[in-house]
Amino acid sequence: MKRVLALMMCLALLTALPVAASGEQIKSVSIYTCYVEAEALEMFEQFTKDTGIKVNYVRLGAGEIVTRLEAEKENPQVSIFMGGSVDTHTSAMNKGLLDNYVSPMIDVVDERWKDPNQVWTPVSMIVTAFASNTEYLAEKGIEAPTSWAELLNPELKGDVCMAHPGTSGAAYTAFSGMLQTFGVEEGFEYMKKLDGNIAQYTKAGAAPYRMAGLGEIGVAIGYDLDAQATINEGYPLVITYPSEGTGYEVTCVSMVKGGPANEVEAAHAFIDWMLSDTCQTMATEQFYRYPISKNIPVNPAMIPMDQLNLIDYDFIWSGDNKVALVERFEREVRTAENVLK
Amino acid sequence: MLARQPGLLACIVLILAVLVVFCIFPVIRLFVATLTNEAGRLDLSNIRHIMEATNFFHSLGNSMLLGVTVAALSTLTGYVFAFAVTRTEMPGKRFFDFMATMPILSPPFVISLAMILLFGRSGIITKNLMHIRNNNVYGFGSLVIVQTLALFPLAYLNLKGMLESIDGSVEDASRSLGASRWKVFSSVTLPLSAPGIFSSLLIVFAKSISDFGNPQVLAGNFSVLSVDAYMQITGLYNLKTGAFMALSILLPAMLAFFIQKYWVARKSFVTVTGKPVGSIRLIHEKKIVAPLFCVCLLVSVFTLMLYGTVIWVSLVKTWGVDMSLALKNYEFVFKRGKDAIGDTLTLALIATPITALLGLIISFLLVRKKFPGKKLMEAASMIPFAVPGIALGIGYILSFNTRPLLLTGTPVIIVAALVFRTLSVGVEAGSNSLRAVDPSIEEASAVLGANNLTTFRRVSLPLMRSALFSGLLNAFVRSMTSVSAVIFLVSVNWNLLTVSIMSEIEGSRLGVASAYCVVLMGIVVIALLLMRLGLDGKPSRGRRRRETHE
Amino acid sequence: MSENKAVGVELKELTKVFPAYGTQKDFTAVDHVSLSARPGEMVTLLGPSGCGKTTILRMISGFEIPTSGQVLIGGKDVSTLPPNKRNVGMMFQSYALFPHLNVFENVAYGLRVKKVPEQEIRRRVQEVLELMQISAFTARMPNQLSGGQQQRVALARAVVTEPSVLLFDEPLSNLDAKLREYMRDELRKIQQRVGITSVYVTHDQSEAMAISDKVVVMRSGVIQQVGTATGIYTSPLSCFVADFMGKANFLPVTDWNGKDTCVVFGRPVKAALAEGTDPKREMVLMARPENIILCQDGPFEARVENATYMGQTFQYVLSCQGHSFFVADYGYHTGGIHGPGDTVHWRMVEPSLRLLQAEKEDNDA
Q1: Which residue of chain C comes nearest to B183, CA vs CA?
Q2: What is the pLDDT of residues B445-471, one digit of tens each?
Q3: Is residue B372, in this structure, part of any structural domain at all?
Q4: Residue in B318, B409, B411 nearest the CB of A234
Q5: C-alpha distances in angstroms, C315 versus A172, A262, B330, C310, C351?
Q6: Which residue of chain B has the CA closest to A18?
Q7: Domain range holding B413?
Q8: Which end of chain C is more exposed for a tag (fewer CB within 10 A), N or C?
């Protein structure tokens, strides 16, 4: 019996040693990211190849990251907050969690996307889109919806899905974009009607596309890049955009205030790298993001931005009102009657 | 007397201090966070706001409904299994005993995952076998099934122990006085096992409302507090609201737990004398055994089917599109996941012996020694077990993010969460074991000149061997499968398998999630086998079970 | 309590074999046992642990099914009837009182099962509680009673249903010595008063002697001897029975005429011979400690090895020609006491002596 105990402690120590020993000598940077893990892995690998700096990361949801940062305020564990929309970074900035940084590479970015407060750095754009299962459409004999209004089609009852705007950045962007397109009061009226067609509100932003791909639902709402990724895996989806107005997210990267002092340089290097040609090309070619860099052309497989009816997304309004809007959503849209479907 | 044993005194003080810091302090911090505002003053406006603005009462009602339903069903199922195994000649008892305890070994989501795969909108059974389109697998019904399957082992173990310790001759007496089988059951067995039944109801209730992993995956629109608390924190960045919701689960759960511990347990009619109670007559009448057998078989087969599905799905290339078998998912798991696997194993292996040893020491102190602060020690060691994982996780973040207790981001905080969450199990096992040992054995050791440490080491500990091993195994399994307590504690350097599984499920990458689950279960099974070997197979049953027939 | 129409119990060639279990072989617990109890008789099964007496009891009560043979109660073959249909009353070693019922309910249990009307239940329970002298405790719970009180409740519960047979499974073994003596007398009184045929199992020979009409000595599943207590005590048929039923000395016999005379320690001694003894076997002389008298004119001589004061007697270990044996001296008040190393003279009370077959050393006791 004593032998077993001793054995366990040895085993534990043995596995712990390499973990403890490594990571101290090589330059590294620690990151919280809400990028999809597969994408994040590739980016980090490329970064390490290009700069020799190692990346330690945790993948969390955007909201989780903000809460973590807040909880760890007195002793921040990471240097970089990577991913997430402007609203999210603004929220974090307002809570005093971020540090300014202006990258020397910033000039590749168009003026309208830059942060007036010079805290966050934009690195890509992703757009609200619908994705419909082609087999489902064929069965029902309808066309893929190209507008918000078409989503109210009674044929689609119980077959539409989006994530919960409280937990998913993609869903919140779609929701906020829709409210900005129609106006808040009309937007909420619309949402209540749409709720009748909604199967459920998932937690993760990409989940609706998976469900559409599997044929569990007919139409999913979210970000275009997630839809594209699902199509690449072989699922039968077709992407369309809301014609009344398409919302979008500017994906950001920021420095965390008070992060590990020995990583500051590496963190700056990371942000700079995200604006580099290599990274921007990767982002659009492999992951279907709209590049933020003026120098890099959009992936030819994607619809060019000027062909989409992009609204003038008000990030500040969106960020400031998130809590109130989500709570109202919970109260008025996702009511008890609706919930017990 | 204590003053004359400085070593013992130091030990007690140290343990009390550790318990206060890691078990009581975080809970207090939760209360503080909820009840005060930014300036640190008492402020109930936040609570008022929560009750008005959110779905709070609705979720509260749902959580309670779920808890009560699952408690009832689990206890019933557990009783059927326990009775069948201890009182009848049902064939395949060892198989059913294993099936009834297996769900404890698996991570919380596996069953939920399988439900989706089998009964979801494009589920194997619903779509392909039964041709039901768009079956809504999410919601109350599925959640009840899943939680019952996951939690009835708790009831089973509890009730089995209870039934085994009922003096067999009382049932014989009833029989000799003319009672039929049913009368024996209804007038003797059932009343005598009542404390066990209440106990199970309360424990399962507490566990059900605290459950985070299953509702997260399967609840759909059926909102429950545990998930709401999580969403408050992750979606709305609202630590305070999250803390409040966690507290609202914590209070009923702890209440249930402590009622069970201090009131129901007292009412037990069974005297624990440790004396063999003679052979137990086994029921062989077909009309009793057959229905029991059917129920047990149904539950077992269903459970196996769920696990089998997860294994199958892990081997499928692209679920729903390309159903050919491939190891693609496992490749990903071992590439990206090897960090998580290694980290989880390391942390679990560190936490496990600490839990077991600490648990045994505490149980020794509680059962054999008298000292001021004893009740405090007992209650404190149980709190993290009774507290919902979410609440504990949040409490830990709040408590250990400032000096002097700066632990966030380090492995220490994860190990601490794992250790103290499972501590109570070790203490319980140790206490039961000790109570069956005659104290005069330890007195003999003292008289022969051994001090406390030596007596503990050379006399008590060996006698508690079986408790030590079951404690070790339990601690290890729980550490490996813990999710709600640690989900907030993972850091850049330390990842946990269960958290990885959860994010894969969220991203609907069910194939990868399944592969992770299989790997996790595999590790647990290997650990189980290793420990069985290490025990060199001597069951410490003090009772000769000569099974007799009527 | 109405006078019970007592019935007899008969066991015919009763056998119980437990099939091989794990590494053990088939175990014959009871081997072709035949015995009977007359109506109203108290029969005691006496023997060491593992001799099969409890198994026999359980076959009578129905908790074991015989491998072969029959159990007849009142002439009816009940061998395969379940226990709740046999109308036997049973007193368990651990009393087996229902811990969740009070005294009244415990005793009333069997009547309730039989659906006896409430009025009558109350009457009969009261009656039997008075008989056992525990009416004061009607409302108490079993854990509030002493051992002796619990026992009486158990007995009350067993007799109130007026069973045809009463079975006792070592009921007194959990009591302390004084209480045990008192209770066994009480049990006997009640059994005789109520007149139910009873089978009593015990390993304590003094108990068996005190209460039985008939004693059955058992060993390894086989009956060794049946008779009255007195009969067995004075005329044991084997060394085992002699030694089990009280203390016995076995003195070496150097010569024997095949009948009633033998030579012990060089002197001729007359002793009774057990029936059916094979004249070619080696013999020993059984002499009980109280039948060896220390007297100054005794023909034998011995050295005192040990002397113990027991209150009633002085107990000596004497050694004579290399053999040691016990003596219980009841007459020490007048005869004086001796200490270790003394030489004493002694004689034996010849009518009490028995010639028995020597038993081999490797017995499976």
Answers
A1: C113
A2: 777 777 777 777 777 777 777 767 777
A3: yes
A4: B318
A5: 100, 94, 84, 7, 22
A6: B342
A7: 1-44+320-537
A8: C
Lowest mean pLDDT: which of A93-97, B22-26, B482-486, C168-172? B482-486
Residues of B in contact with A58 (CB under 8 A): 490-492, 495
Q: What average pLDDT does the segment A24-34 reach? A: 81
Beta carbons of B462 and A5 less than 8 Å apart: no
What CATH architecture is C247-357?
Answer: Beta Barrel (2.40)
Q: Kindly indicate the confidence band of residue B540, based on its pLDDT and cuts at 50, 70 and 90.
A: very low
Chains C and A touch (3+ CB pairs under 8 A): no
Q: How many CA atoms lie within 13 A of C228 on its CB side?
A: 4
Q: Please answer yes or no on whether A59 and B503 come within 8 Å at the CB atom.
A: yes
| pLDDT tens-digit series, residues C117-130 | 999 999 999 999 99
**Third-level CATH fold of A28-125+250-303:** D-Maltodextrin-Binding Protein; domain 2 (3.40.190)
Residues of chain A neighbouring B231 (CB-CB closer than 8 A): 164, 166-167, 203
- Asked if pLDDT for residue C100 goes beyond 90, the answer is no
In a domain, B35, yes or no: yes
Residue A121: what pLDDT? Answer: 93
Whether residues B301 and B391 share a domain: the answer is no
Q: CA of C229 to nearest chain B CA: how many angstroms apart?
A: 29
Q: pLDDT value at position B435?
A: 75
Task: Let me know: does A254 contact A92? Beta carbons within 8 Å.
Answer: yes
How much is the pLDDT for A23? Answer: 42
Return the CATH superfamily for domain C9-234: P-loop containing nucleotide triphosphate hydrolases (3.40.50.300)
Inside any domain, residue B239: no
Most trustworthy range by pLDDT among A241-245, A271-275, A330-334, B439-443: A271-275
C88–B191: do the CB atoms touch at under 8 Å?
no
Asked if residue B402 and residue B280 are part of one domain, the reply reads no
Is residue B247, in this structure, part of any structural domain at all?
no
* B18 and B104, same domain (yes or no): no
Q: Using a CB-CB distance cutoff of 8 angstroms, which residues of chain A are in contact with residue B531?
A: 4
The minimal CB distance from C92 to the residues B169, B281, B548 is found for B169
Instruction: Report CB contact under 8 Å: B550, C97.
Output: no
Query: ipTM score here?
Result: 0.73
Give the nearest chain C residue to B190 (CA atoms). Answer: C100
Q: Inter-chain contact B169–C96, Cβ cutoff 8 Å?
A: yes
Pick B179's closest partner by Cβ from C63, C84, C89. C84
B175/C84 CB distance under 8 A:
yes
Contacting subunits of A (3+ beta carbon pairs below 8 A):
B
Q: Give C51 to chain B, closest Cα distance, Å.
A: 16
Query: CB under 8 Å to B416, separation ≥6 — which residues?
Result: B22, B396, B407
pLDDT given for residue B30 in this prediction: 80
pLDDT of residue B220: 75
Reply yes or no on whether the pLDDT at A273 is more than 90: yes
For residues B291 and B330, membership in a common domain is answered with no
Lowest mean pLDDT among B38-52, C44-58, C68-82: B38-52
Interface contacts (A, B; CB < 8 Å) = 182
Given CATH 3.40.190.10, say whether it is the number of domain A126-248+309-339.
Answer: yes
What CATH number is given to the structural domain containing B15?
A: 1.10.3720.10
Residue B438 in this model has a pLDDT that exceeds 60? yes
Quick check: C319 pLDDT over 70? Answer: yes
